[in-house]
């Protein structure tokens, strides 16, 4: 699909402060077709970064159908995909342990569950699990695992102890509306756990428009820590803890180096690979010390009145 055929999504106000004016920030490529680029803009008042114009909810489905889109793959087809799947297994265990340090057992809804591997990890540990996944291919794989994949979160008949959105919020056209809806599914002391890429991280600053986590046009919004804090506060939630996804600096930086190195000379490719390792190492180290500086930040939130 050519960018010039993409309709202008009608909502141009800032999601965070609702200001209606924005400035051009940078042009970023579709990582599966780098000749195709999309504009990021920045709110003139609060600085929030978002894709505009952007595909509407019908058009954007086409951008998830690329066979190289790893979150929706079940079987690896290359060495890099094999590594991705091995890392995903470790990440799922890490996520489970993180949650069980807060709540030992209970019920969980994973919104945007993809192919369902995280829910399988939770189910095997004794959790009551529910998923929601709008992408047909990924949804089908999750159901093949025997998981409960809902057609809508409204189908839930009981409240949930934990709602997770792992790298989901940045994909949604109306994330504020969704969070307001999902909070009604949470028990009174339930937790939101949200992970999103961090555009203030070192790897983002080093790779600029080649930073793979801009992932245009699939990622519509780019949340800084203060943006997530404001968004959650607007629905009556407060962040109680910040964590990192510690493989993400390596994934983001090395894929960013690969994206930037396309059509470059051998020497430039070697330089960019080194740049990727340096960026990943710096981002990893900074994230260990300063949780809000992680390449991807996990936000754990509960109702403000608790």
Reconstruct the topology from this structure.
Blueprint: E1 22-30, E2 33-43, E3 49-51, H1 79-100, E4 107-111, H2 117-124, E5 128-132, H3 136-144, E6 149-150, E7 160-166, H4 175-183, E8 186-197, H5 202-207, E9 221-222, H6 225-234, E10 237-244, H7 248-260, H8 266-289, E11 296-303
Number of strand segments = 11
What's the gyration radius in Å?
Answer: 19 Å
Compute the number of helices: 8
Shape: globular
Helicity, in percent? 25-40%
The termini sit apart by 48 Å
Largest sheet: 7 strands, mixed
Concise structural overview:
33% of the residues lie in helices and 24% in strands.
Task: Give an account of the 3D structure.
The protein is of the alpha/beta class and 306 residues long. It contains 8 helices and 11 strands. Strands 6-5-4-7-8-11-10 form a 7-stranded mixed beta sheet, sandwiched between helices. A 4-stranded antiparallel beta sheet has the order 1-2-3-9, with no helix packed on it. Helix 2 links the parallel strand 4 (107-111) and strand 5. Helix 1 packs across helix 2. The longest helix is centred in the C-terminal third of the chain and has 24 residues, at 266-289.
Describe the structure using short key phrases.
8 helices, alpha/beta, 11 strands, 306 residues, 4-stranded antiparallel beta sheet, disordered N terminus, 7-stranded mixed beta sheet
């Amino acid at each position: 699909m050519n960018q010039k055929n993409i309709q202008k999504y009608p909502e141009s106000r800032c999601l965070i402060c609702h200001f209606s004016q924005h400035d051009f920030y940078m042009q970023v490529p579709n990582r599966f077709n780098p000749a195709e680029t999309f504009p990021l803009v920045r709110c003139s008042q609060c600085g929030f970064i978002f894709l505009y114009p952007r595909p509407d909810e019908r058009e954007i489905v086409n951008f998830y159908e690329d066979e190289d889109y790893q979150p929706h793959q079940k079987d690896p087809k290359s060495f890099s995909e094999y590594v991705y799947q091995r890392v995903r297994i470790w990440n799922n265990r890490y996520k489970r342990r993180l949650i069980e340090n807060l709540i030992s057992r209970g019920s969980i809804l994973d919104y945007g569950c993809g192919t369902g591997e995280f829910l399988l990890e939770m189910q095997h540990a004794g959790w009551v699990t529910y998923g929601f996944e709008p992408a047909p291919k990924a949804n089908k794989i999750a159901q093949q695992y025997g998981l409960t994949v809902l057609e809508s979160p409204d189908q839930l008949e009981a409240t949930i102890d934990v709602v997770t959105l792992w790298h989901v919020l940045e994909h949604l056209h109306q994330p504020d509306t969704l969070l307001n809806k999902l909070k009604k599914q949470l028990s009174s002391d339930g937790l939101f756990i949200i992970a999103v890429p961090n555009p203030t991280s070192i790897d983002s600053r080093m790779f600029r428009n080649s930073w793979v986590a801009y992932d245009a046009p699939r990622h519509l919004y780019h949340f800084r820590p203060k943006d997530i804090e404001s968004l959650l506060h607007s629905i009556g939630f407060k962040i109680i803890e910040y964590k990192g996804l510690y493989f993400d600096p390596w994934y983001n930086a090395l894929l960013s180096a690969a994206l930037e190195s396309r059509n470059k000379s051998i020497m430039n490719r070697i330089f960019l690979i080194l740049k990727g390792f340096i960026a990943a190492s710096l981002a990893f180290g900074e994230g260990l010390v300063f949780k809000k500086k992680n390449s991807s930040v996990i936000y754990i939130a509960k109702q403000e009145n608790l």
